[in-house]
Design goal:
Number of domains: 5
Bound molecules: zinc ion
CATH topology of the largest domain: Aminopeptidase
CATH architecture of the largest domain: 3-Layer(aba) Sandwich
Radius of gyration: 23 Å
Strand content: 35-45%
CATH class of the largest domain: Alpha Beta
Number of helices: 7
Length: 467
């Protein structure tokens, strides 16, 4: 009798612990398996940044439920689980809870002063919260985020500045190095509030840290191709079961290496191990022609930032940075402008066709009169081309990679009648990296380490698009 009760209690505890735990996939195109082994059937594949609910954990595997209601298994390394957080009202007034991320939407309740609600995500500058068992929106600029329990983060680089407040303009209180670990207690505009060794608090920029030291997402990504027809196995030796065979020339992503074997993921999302003697390194964008378009220029400054800086200059900086990364990945990269000159949007679109480019990416930074707004968005246009391969797929691949950056928030993938996207027969997308009209986001945008991180993730998105 006692034993049965104990088992029930243990089961209840596991269920309570696991229930409602939300995670996001951190690798593009990964299989959802029917069982917790690499040899089982695939139910579907999930894109990077897919939201999943974790139902159960068993060894190296998680059983998950996807947004469209499918259940299946994924290796735990491929899911990043953000810690549980609350949205807290630290003001002296009640704050409205609404059905959509806009002040014009229906009000369903209020968060009273001092009250908190479970934080789910941030979209379009509003926090998504759990309220009356549903997901609703609350203005992010009126509320604070607090962690349910403190969580560890790890520094990604050496000599990272720890500041006295959540801003690049505040004093540097201390520095940390790669793999240093700190406890996070809160979050503000993409910055983490961390507890220092002397028990005081400091702030670090989100894009400089990771939540998961073992995450494949932070490893360097290699691409290899099979030099011959080649078996993919469930483990790193020829004694393991065969899952499938790669065709000669097939491209795979390499995640790890062990005793002459590589852990790989195929184009179709299958993970497994291959003998590395039959894989050779390749540049993932070899033979691709890319036209980058730094928006505005000359007499057209684009947005003017909170501090009075011009968008046209920052667009050009990001384009040069991205060009270098794409070149290293094997692409031939051209730019619509390489200095401060004006070109019509129509000409920019036509340039891609004349060049015979595989894709056109227009680079911009956003602005609004309301300086509270922040977030990253990408755009495509369907007026002349309805087929998603003409813009949507590219806009989506870039967006889903870019929002994996800590401190970058979702602002959507949108169909817009932008001339540069409309007046071309080349698959085209446009990115608005952040709001220059928001003083905090503006500072991130002008920061070199932020620019590098964003350019790397845009490049990852472009690689995903082609593969
Ligand atoms: Zn612009």
């Amino acid at each position: 009798m006692k034993k049965t009760i104990l088992i029930i209690i243990v089961l209840l505890f596991i269920n309570i612990y696991a229930y409602g735990s939300t995670g996001y996939t951190n690798i593009s195109n990964i299989a959802l398996y029917s069982n917790s082994n690499l040899n089982s059937d695939i139910k579907s594949t999930l894109k990077i940044s897919s939201k999943v609910e974790i139902i159960q954990q068993e060894g190296e595997w998680c059983k998950v439920k996807t947004q469209d209601g499918k259940t299946g298994w994924i290796e735990k390394y491929f899911i990043t689980v953000p810690s549980e957080k609350y949205v807290v009202n630290n003001t002296e007034h009640s704050i409205n809870i609404r059905t959509s991320p806009t002040t014009g939407s229906k009000q369903v309740g209020q968060l009273k002063p001092g009250a908190k609600a479970k934080y789910i995500d941030t979209y379009h500058s509003w926090h998504i919260i759990e309220y009356n068992d549903n997901e609703y929106y609350i203005a992010s600029w009126l509320t604070d985020i607090e962690y349910k329990q403190s969580e560890k983060i790890y520094f990604l680089y050496d000599k990272i500045n720890i500041r006295s407040s959540a801003s690049l303009s505040s004093d540097v209180a201390a520095q940390g190095n790669k793999n240093d670990s700190f406890e996070v207690v809160g979050e503000e505009n993409g910055w983490y509030k961390i507890r220092l060794n002397d028990k005081s608090y400091g702030y670090v920029a989100g894009w400089l840290v990771t939540h998961d030291l073992n995450s494949y997402a932070e490893e360097q990504k290699n691409y290899k191709k099979a030099t011959d027809s080649l078996n993919v196995r469930t483990g790193p030796s020829s004694e393991y079961n065969i899952i499938l065979a790669l065709k000669k020339g097939e491209l795979v992503k390499v995640l790890a290496s062990q005793n002459g074997w590589d852990k790989i993921v195929t184009k179709n999302g299958y993970a497994g191990w291959c003998n590395s003697n039959y894989l050779e390194e390749v540049l993932p964008l070899e033979g691709r022609v890319i036209l980058l378009d730094p928006g505005h220029g000359g007499h057209d400054p684009g947005s003017i930032s909170f501090s009075g800086k011009y968008e046209k200059h920052i667009n050009l900086d990001v384009a040069f940075n991205l060009k270098e990364i794409l070149n290293k990945a094997g692409a031939s990269v051209y730019m619509t402008r390489t200095n401060d000159t004006y070109i019509t949007n129509k000409d920019r679109g036509r340039m891609a066709d004349k060049l015979g480019a595989d894709i056109l990416l227009s680079i911009h930074h956003n602005s609004l009169t309301n300086s509270n707004y922040f977030g990253l968005s990408t755009y495509y246009n369907t007026i002349n081309h309805k087929d998603p391969s003409y813009g949507y797929n590219l806009a989506e691949a870039i967006y889903l990679n870019a929002i994996t950056i800590n401190g970058v928030y979702r602002d959507g993938i949108l169909d817009r009648n932008y001339e540069v996207l409309r007046e071309t027969n080349t698959p085209a997308a446009l990115i608005e990296i952040g709001f220059m009209s928001n003083p905090k986001e503006e500072m991130n945008i002008h920061n070199i380490s932020f620019q590098n991180t964003v350019a790397e993730k845009i490049a990852d998105g472009i690689i995903d698009y082609f593969n």
